[in-house]
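Section handout 9: paired folding examples.
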Amino acid sequence: MSSGGCSRLLTMASDAWAEIVVSADGQEVTIGRVVGPRPDMATVDALARLQLAAARLGCTVQLRTLRPELAELVELAGLQRLFVPGVEPGG
């Protein structure tokens, strides 16, 4: 992941596209927010890579307070069940 992708994902800001929450062993920690210009598929790719890295460590990543623009891209990529609590496959 490029340093631009990291800064886009982890910078804290009030105009965030979503909050990034990592869960493991019943504990949750908000690690950052998705910020920056309008999200695109590169943003979703970076989030998918973060989810993969977290899974390798026995953790999960959830997105909270998604704004509609990012939620649509996550759904378009078919990844909503990975990031959004309570979403079932195909739902």
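Moving on to protein 2 of 2.
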Amino acid sequence: MLKKIVLSGNTIKDEGAISLGESLKTNKSLEELELCNCDISAIGGKAIGEALQLGIAVLTKLDVRSNGLGDDGRNALRAATKGRTNFVLQM
């Protein structure tokens, strides 16, 4: 069972983040996702945030440092993970 994905340094951009967001909506095993320096903007950040807000994903760590998320993307991720016990969000 897949527990961790490290895509840091890969330019997946918003298209990749949107795809990951869609996958997170149904994934029940992935616990850690590292997306540092992947050229993700607010659009991709919001897509991941929307998936996390559903509460289905078992993700416990998300690392999105060194991306151009902007305030909108960061706020979407903060809102999606607010109140999640032991969740590590690195931005």
